[in-house]
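## tool: complex_structure
## caller: assistant
## args:
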Amino acid sequence: MATDEIARSRRLAVMGGTFDPIHFAHLLIAEDVRRRFRLPRVLFMPSGQPPHKDERAVTSAEERYIMALLATSDNPHFEVSRLEIDRPGPSYTIDTLRALKSELGEGAQLYFVTGADAVLEILTWRQPDAILDEATLVAVHRPGFDLARLDETLGARRASKITVIEAALANISSTMIRELAARGESIRYLTPRPVIDYIHKHRLYRRDEVAPEPLEETTA
Ligand code: NAP
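## result:
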């Protein structure tokens, strides 16, 4: 499929998340969803201001956006959106889905992909039922996640509208990368090399007292 055809496609997955930082599991999940639903495009949507997070605890939206760009640049089917980053105020998912639908026009079909832990909280989000009407919700869970919790928490009617998939590379998480980087330990093979270089160059997640990163982490 040619690049301009991909860009024009109105069937797409929207990878919603904080991406602090983006890592290989996010990329593999995106590719899995793309293949599973035969979608030409995956749009990574870093939250500008995550609605349920303390702003000070999260890396700046611009830095998270740049890392997402670096991680996805070699895949013609992946794009990164500035929609939530450029929109002032908390990044409500319903606003994002409606903005995308209005931009894409008639026939737009969206798959909103995010972590199952986040989906469990959807009743606390703005207009949860409208979200379930606007997009197919894809909840990505790690092993050990009790799937019955979706039914129990959201009710059978809402849960039936949610597609559940198991995470690839489930032992990689953004929290793990932040913690390793904070201790000055290796984050090699957890996220693409350009993201590792960016994290080191900008000293993201570092505590002041830790020693400089090991030599193996730096590019020659
Ligand atoms: P989070 O707490 O950062 O993530 C929850 C869990 O899901 C983590 O284990 C996380 O792993 C995983 N995860 C996050 N995004 C993922 C993705 N795209 N694919 C697979 N796993 C993913 O959740 P969050 O990032 O704040 O929120 C998730 C999405 O829900 C965002 O798009 C956010 O804007 C939206 N949201 C909307 C509202 C609202 O509209 N009111 C409220 C809350 C959240 P990693 O840490 O490894 O990524």
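## assistant note: The longest strand covers residues 11-17. The pocket of NAP is lined by residues 15-18, 26, 29, 47, 50-53, 91-93, 113-115, 117-118, 125-126, 140, 173-175 (CB under 6 Å). Handing back to user.
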